[in-house]
Design a protein that fits this description.
The chain folds into two domains: 4-60, Rubrerythrin, domain 2; 74-410, Citrate Synthase, domain 1. Helices cover 52% and strands 7% of the residues. The protein has helices at 33-37, 73-79, 82-91, 97-109, 117-123, 130-144, 155-180, 194-203, 214-227, 234-243, 249-260, 268-281, 287-294, 315-331, 336-349, 352-356, 363-374, 381-402, and strands at 4-9, 12-20, 26-28, 57-60, 65-68, 71-72. Strand 2 and strand 3 form a beta hairpin. It binds carboxymethyl coenzyme *A. Carboxymethyl coenzyme *A (CMC) binds at residues 45, 230, 233, 264-266, 268, 293, 301-308, 357, 359, 362-364.
Length: 429
């Protein structure tokens, strides 16, 4: 017999089906709740609300498990590449050799962006945050490809949009950096792989030959894999909800980038480094910051600590912490900020406040230190996160369209004034 859940309202009992996922996750299906009872559920921040069923990513926060399409993140980070993982997320299976060759060939050849878009970069103030530049340019792409905006078009048109986006985000990201330092942009080059090409556009000059360091290339590829999807987080839910109105994919991912920017989400990697630099400037003592983080009247939080879903450890943070040590060793970099991060982690993890709330370092705690070692400026960190997360946003959007999900439209419980007559201005107190 299939499992059901009962809700009692007064003397009446209502039954609802229980849905079970492939990993035995349970949900009470309340699709008919309002029709049957007149009630809605209230769940601020959607802490207990499943917005969809999904076959893309499995995450178990208690046990620290993360898998893309069944493949453990640890194996993908060690053995795969970012473009292969992107294919896996978007099409649900690892590509064959022929599929992968076609995929990488197409993405490599779509990295150039329309020459007119170059003017956009110059039009932003040089102090513009690169996330603002990235989100604006992602939605601007829609104006260059009006023929491919309909999400319900045949697969090949949608596939082309997907490849364009993954290809062009690296150029947009690198050019937003070049603009911020007032340097001429460097065009993409087909002789490089995805990460080499990005690093070339970031760090070479138009007149120079540039040899990306293989250690840096591999570390970047791994970071992008670790960020590639994380099921229904803030930015991904944003992408799905924007896409549910049948807005085009460019606008959905631009909205995702805007959501990612916040320091509680993807902006945390920038905030972590700024916090560690503050601690360093302040003399490096940890206790003062731990006390501030625990003080409910102080808005300070330890950035890069805590997670909505992981309540034991973040498996991405475990991989990144190790990679951080490796990369800094191989590059011969001695970054005092890394030492401060380790000290802060040690102090926090032995403090009852953090232990009792299950607050552990998350993916962003160490990623910024690797980006620093690669020479990527702090303001670009969230852009790096967006580049990594793009395949996840696309996969989730594609699944939402394929499932024919209805437009996202939550309800509310109104707590404002009840009906009252309009008061002319002269009579207002
Ligand atoms: N420092 C100090 N206290 C914290 C922190 C922190 N970083 N994170 C949570 N808490 C406390 C919080 O004050 C609350 O305490 P109490 O129960 O006494 O009121 C308790 O822990 C639970 O926190 P919450 O805010 O209710 O938890 P949440 O699930 O709503 O928020 C979070 C999760 C990630 C937004 C939060 O932990 C946070 O603000 N962390 C710092 C920002 C950060 O690193 N964000 C990156 C997340 S990982 C990358 C990504 O995928 O976005």
């Amino acid at each position: 017999m299939s499992e059901t859940a009962k809700i009692q309202l007064g003397d009446e009992i209502f039954e609802f089906p229980v849905i079970t996922g492939t990993e035995n996750e349970k949900a009470i299906d309340i699709t008919t709740l309002r029709a049957k009872t007149g009630y809605i559920t209230l769940d601020s921040g959607y802490k207990n609300t499943g917005a969809t069923t999904s076959s893309i990513t499995f995450l178990n926060g208690e046990e620290g498990i993360l898998r893309y399409s069944g493949y453990p993140i640890e194996q993908l980070a060690e053995k795969s590449t970012f473009l292969e993982v992107a294919y896996l997320l978007i099409y649900g299976e690892l590509p064959t050799k022929a599929q992968f060759d076609h995929w990488t060939h197409k993405i490599t050849r779509h990295t150039l962006i329309h020459e007119d878009m170059k003017d956009f970069f110059g039009a932003f103030p040089s102090k513009a945050h690169p996330m603002g530049v990235l989100a604006s340019n992602l939605i601007s792409l829609s104006t260059f490809y009006p023929e491919s905006l309909d999400p319900d078009r045949e697969d090949s048109a949608v596939d082309l949009t997907i490849m364009r986006l993954i290809a062009k985000i690296s150029t947009i990201a690198a050019w937003s950096y070049k603009n911020s330092v007032g340097h001429p942009v460097v065009y993409p080059h087909n002789k490089y792989n995805y990460c080499e090409n990005f690093l070339n556009m970031m760090f070479s000059m138009p007149t120079e030959d540039y040899e990306p360091d293989p250690v840096v290339v591999r570390a970047l590829d791994q970071l992008l894999i670790l960020h590639a999807d994380h099921e229904q987080n803030c930015s991904t839910s944003t992408v799905r909800i924007v896409g549910s109105s049948k807005a085009n994919l460019y606008s959905a991912v631009a909205a995702g980038a805007a959501a990612l920017w916040g320091p509680l989400h993807g902006g945390a990697n920038q905030a972590v480094i700024e916090m560690l630099e503050n601690i360093q400037r302040d003399g490096g003592g940890m206790q003062k910051w731990i006390v501030k983080a625990k003080d409910k009247d102080d808005p300070f939080r330890i950035m890069g600590f805590g997670h909505r879903v992981y309540k034991n450890f973040d498996p991405r943070a475990t991989i990144i912490k190790k990679s951080c040590d490796d990369v800094l060793n191989k590059l011969g970099i001695n970054d005092p900020i890394l030492e401060l991060a380790k000290q802060l982690e040690e102090v926090a993890l032995s403090d009852d406040y953090f232990i009792s709330r299950s607050l552990y370092p998350n993916v962003d705690f160490y990623s910024g230190i690797i980006y620093r070692a690669m020479g990527i400026p702090t303001q670009m960190f969230t852009v790096m996160f967006a580049m990594g997360r793009l395949p996840g946003w696309i996969a989730q959007w594609k699944e939402m369209i394929a499932n024919k999900e209805p437009i996202g439209r939550p309800r509310q419980i109104y707590t404002g004034a009840t009906e009252r007559p309009y008061v002319p201005m002269a009579k207002r107190k």
